[in-house]
Amino acid sequence: MMNNEALKSKIQALASDTEFVETGQYLTASVPYRKIHAICKGLKEGADTAFDYLFNLTGIDYLEKNQMAVIYHLESTEFHHIVVLKAIIPTRENPEIESLCDLYAGANFHEREVYDFFGINFKNHPDMRRMFLDEISDNIGHPFRKDYVDEVNIIER
Amino acid sequence: MKQTDFLDNETLELLKQTGGSVMMTTIDDIVNWGRSNSIWPLTFATSCCGIEMMAAGASRHDFARFGIEVYRATPRQADVIVVAGTIVRKMAPVLKRLYDQMADPKYVIAMGACAVSGGPFFYNTYSVIRGVEHVIPVDVYIPGCPPRPEALLYGVMQLQRKIKGESLTVQKDWEKALSEGPLPHEK
Predict the structure, then answer these.
(1) For B8-62, what is the HEC assignment?
(2) Is A135 within 8 Å of B90 when comparing Cβ atoms?
(3) What is the pTM of this model?
């Protein structure tokens, strides 16, 4: 198991402009979103990091900052260390980020879910379709976005 | 005097739907006695109210004492559907289909705030149906979030009282609606 300092230097080596936060339960690294695939590939294939398990992937909408983010929770089933990667996309219009499906098969449904609720597009995803909401309505939009409006179904308060 | 003139719980059993014809009320009494004392619920729960419903069925509260006997895992064998939990827009067509598959006579208990009105999810949500009565007709509403098992027992007993006032000769509202042809949205 690697401690936070060792993990930091590993991630720093893969992407030098990474910022770290250690106040939470896990070490959180804000990584440049264009390099997310390369970083995950490096962390997965590194013999002493071996992050082979993506146990969560979710999205965030930062309306005030005009940003969106994708959060990756990685764990190593060999060393049992955990790191959280946060990739901030500096736009809310047609945000795009690389898919991790070729590294982690479990990313497939997670990324489709994030696309469904936040409208973040994942490049090189093998099957970039909606996950749940197309059964409700064809033009439902992306309801987890903070500026989502639905005058028929939502009663605002 | 008709039962519909008194839409309160106290007169449920006193005023039969027939209006009190001696011959029919005796037959009705026998049929209703049988029906009201063997209400089989459908195994259907969508959230935390389902836990309370399970508790009501388990040994401490044991609603088999009141004849609401055994959970059926198929709507074709169930008499009552206890809507225990939030109904979202994806669940609504499923619930409607389950209700349609139940054999008559069938009853609906809306258990808990979500099934009654949307409850804690009334505001600022795109997905929750605000009250299950928008999907299927409800016989008994049980407030609470979630209601205690005792509240569910009380609700079931209210349903039994309601059943005891029914009559074979009186057409139900939905039967009347069906006999008048297709519903407005089906035309």
Answers:
(1) CHHHCCCCCCCCCCHHHHHHHHHHHHHHHCCCCEECCECCHHHHHHHHHHCCCCC
(2) yes
(3) 0.81
Multiple choice CATH, A4-135, 3.40.1380.10, 3.40.50.1860, 3.50.50.60, 3.30.460.80: 3.30.460.80
Count CB neighbours of B143 within 10 A: 15
Distance (Å, rounded) from C-alpha A142 to C-alpha A116?
A: 6
Residue-range domain boundaries for chain A: 4-135
Fold of B21-167: Rossmann fold (3.40.50)
Q: Are strands A27-32 and A82-89 parallel, antiparallel or unpaired?
A: parallel
Residues in chain A predicted with pLDDT less than 70, given as ranges, are: none
Contact criterion met (CB < 8 Å) for B89 and A148: no
Label residue B12 by pLDDT band (50, 70, 90): low
**pLDDT at residue B17 tops 90:** no
Residue at token pair 């004849």:
B67
First to last CA, chain A: 48
> CA dist B93 to A103, B33, B130, B134, B136, Å?
38, 33, 15, 11, 10
Read off the tokens for B13.
């059993």
Of all helices (H) and strands (E), which one includes residue B65? none
Q: Kindly report the CA angle at A102 between A100 and A104, in degrees rounded to 5? A: 65
Chain A interface, mutation test: which of B97, B117, B126, most A Cβ atoms within 10 Å? B126
Domain residue ranges in chain B: 21-167
